[in-house]
């Protein structure tokens, strides 16, 4: 399949279930895009308030902290527009309400390309198919098609909020077990690590973080047939135009 050339892309919307998801899955790629002058917007469905292991931090405080960490992480890869939807961490379901909320953000941002988590359960790496990831992935694909482009889907988005239908041309699935596209992030790898370090409450004690990431991204690059010594992030690209 043909992937849109980045020169044809002005805006990209990344949908994620939790703060830090985008940084583990795609921050090296995002840094490449912002360096090329493409506008990238993050939409984070939950505040990750069930994250971390520190029981002395109240959950509302954790939500505030994690929004702040995600905002800093985004800044480190050139992203300054973040939309937090405030759903409760660990309890996201594919509801009409979530589809409508995501369709609204698509119509507001008008992206050429959307990134989202995989809606599929991964039996090899169970952690990557957290129920919130699957729910957000499924609702995001429904929001791309048909909701955002159909004027008769959630008609009050148009009638009440004046949001015109919008057709997203391409979706990139993050964290898929069946990637079709590899992005060389060797040069932006330090920015990805910096972004992940901003999630202090999650990665503060991961002293092996950089080594672990380097190994993982080298493995992905080898899978994608990139030259030895390369680091890569992988996606499944879907033509939705
Ligand atoms: Zn997550």
**Rg over C-alpha atoms, rounded to the nearest angstrom:** 17 Å
Strand content: 15-25%
Please report the distance between the alpha carbons of the first and last residues.
13 Å
Helix/strand-derived category reads: alpha/beta
Number of strands: 7
Low-confidence stretches: none
Principal-axes geometry comes out as globular
Q: SSE string, helix = H, strand = E? A: EHEHEHEHHEEHHHE
Biggest sheet features: 7 strands, mixed
Task: Please bin the fraction of helical residues.
Answer: 40-55%
Cofactors, ions, other ligands: zinc ion
Kindly report the spatial arrangement of strands forming the biggest sheet. 3-2-1-4-5-7-6
The overall average pLDDT, rounded, is: 96
- Tally the helices: what do you get? 8
Provide a descriptive summary of the structure in words:
There is one protein chain. With 241 residues, the chain is of the alpha/beta class. A 7-stranded mixed beta sheet has the order 3-2-1-4-5-7-6, with helices on both faces. Strand 1, helix 1 and strand 2 form a beta-alpha-beta unit. The longest helix is centred in the first third of the chain and has 18 residues. It is globular. The chain starts with 10 loop residues before the first strand and ends with a strand. The mean pLDDT is 96. The structure holds zinc ion. Zinc ion (ZN) binds next to loops.
């Amino acid at each position: 399949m043909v992937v849109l050339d980045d020169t044809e892309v002005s805006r990209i919307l990344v949908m994620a279930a939790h703060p830090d998801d985008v940084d583990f899955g795609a921050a090296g790629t995002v840094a490449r895009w912002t360096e090329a002058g493409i506008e990238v917007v993050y939409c984070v469905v939950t505040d990750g308030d069930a994250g971390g292991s520190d029981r002395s931090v109240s959950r509302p405080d954790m939500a505030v902290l994690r929004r702040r960490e995600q905002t800093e992480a985004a800044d480190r890869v050139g992203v300054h527009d973040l939309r937090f939807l405030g759903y409760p961490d660990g309890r996201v379901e594919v509801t009409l309400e979530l589809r409508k909320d995501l369709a609204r953000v698509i119509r507001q941002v008008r992206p050429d390309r959307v990134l989202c988590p995989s809606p599929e359960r991964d039996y090899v790496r169970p952690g990557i198919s957290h129920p919130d990831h699957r729910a957000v992935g499924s609702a995001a694909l429904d929001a791309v098609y048909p909701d955002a482009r159909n004027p008769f889907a959630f008609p009050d988005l148009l009638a009440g909020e004046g949001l015109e239908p919008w057709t997203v041309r391409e979706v990139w699935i993050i964290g898929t077990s069946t990637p079709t596209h590899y992005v060389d992030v060797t040069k932006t790898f330090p920015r990805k690590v910096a972004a992940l370090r901003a999630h202090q409450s999650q990665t503060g004690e991961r002293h092996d973080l950089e080594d672990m990431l380097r190994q993982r991204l080298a493995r992905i690059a080898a899978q994608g047939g990139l030259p030895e010594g390369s680091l890569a992030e992988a996606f499944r690209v879907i033509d939705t135009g």
